[in-house]
RPA43 OB domain-containing protein (Octactis speculum), 262 residues
Amino acid sequence: MTGSPSPFKELEVVIRLSLLPEALHNVRGHIRAQLLQQLLRYNEDFGGVIVSFSKIAPKSHCGQLVCDEPHIHVDVGTTAYVFAPSLTTELIARTTKVSATHISLLAYGIFNVTIAAADVGSAHVISEDGADWICRHERDSDGAQDIRSGTHVRLRVKKTHHAEGLLAIDGELMGVLNTTPASVTMTSSTTTASTTSMTSSADAIVGDMIPMATCITPSENKTVSPAGEGKETDASVRKRKKERKTKDEKKVKKKKKKRETL
């Protein structure tokens, strides 16, 4: 696909996350969990689908509390790898369904693509049983013939749609591949991810993450102690309970004595 722009781009971004106080014992893990929820979802700010994060690091060792809200707001810097095809991008996709009205495909094994019958072109015609698009000629320019389930094709992006975090692509058929591609990889200047690894890109999300200190210095001078600091031992807990019990017993005796006096 010489001359076609890459459908992937790398963005240096800062993402604001909101952590509950319970996250202080494992800030790294909770940041990772929140970023995982954004993978393979369309992000309007980034203009595409996030497929991986790398070089994850909080911008500060402190978070922020706003008014009386319990959430701790943290700015996290990261490199986001985003699938954002333009209208001139060409893709290779595998056919998953054939009908008289359209062809359904998957690009990189994940992204839904639809080629309407009008965009298949005059080189192919639907078969009588509607199971294949039959090539009118002996062979097309790529040396392939019919389009059926499992066939790999080359297409050009015509339009993209997104709703509720899901991306759909309308495409125009450019050609049919004669052989199954050995691998369809996602590459950029610094990152290469295969279709298989992209589906498990969550495993690579930790990257070069720097653990965030759990001290919080909000604008209203409220502070949260670091995780583990000031934590009571079992002995201190037993002592405190015993003191409370003794105090309660004294109160009961005092009330009883007062009633007897009356």
Notes: The domain at 8-83 is CATH 3.30.1490.120 (Dna Ligase; domain 1).
